[in-house]
Write a structure and sequence with these properties.
five-stranded mixed beta sheet, D-Maltodextrin-Binding Protein, domain 2, 249 residues, 2 domains, alpha/beta, elongated
Amino acid sequence: MKTARWIFCFLAAAIPLRAESVNVAAAADLNFAIQEIIQQFEHDTGNVVHLTLGSSGNFYAQILNGAPFDVFLSADTEYPKQLEQQGYAVPGSTFPYGVGRIVLWIPKRSPLDLNKLGMTSLLNDSVKKIAIANPAHAPYGRAAAAAMEYAKLYDRVKGKLVLGENISQAAQFLQSGAADAGIIALSLAVSGPMQKAGRYWLIPSETYPRLEQGAVLLKRAGSAGRAFHEWLRGPEPRRIFEKYGFGKP
């Protein structure tokens, strides 16, 4: 009887629990970082993550209109806090996961010396189009606009601006050659594809509002969503965030 009971327990333990799924909405600046984080989470837990990348403002609007996300990683902390206040997210679940930076990026073919010229590179005649995320709904777009305002360049270059729907699309404009320069997230600039295609200059952080980024647990989340939200606070995600240039909050 004891032997039979032991065999039953062994077989029960060997059968994996049914995998659960998590729907994650993440700001586009997280493109490379979040994919590494998700891969590790899936490996560690057996759960499956369905990722959607986009602009924080658009995700905020979608969640208000019933989009089925469980966890939202924004490029700021304001959208998550507003979702808490409006009853769409679990109270007190917003936490900062990193501080973003912006860079001025140009393709390798450009003759500009970014270290010498800095933001004034945008005034050069060789720069016909400047890619940034749309400031209307992308925190990184607002940071880019603020940095140009600080340098007293915005009014002089606004006719050159090409607006991406999100910061990832702005980076795609640069990588494809549709823009000659751009202001994008450091987390994208340090990725393999962008480093191969060009070079960047780190824009001084005092020239634009602090990009503290937050994650929030939405009320529809099940146990796997809660597990992912909690796992994001751990050492492995922290290591990956730092790898892609995010500062500690």
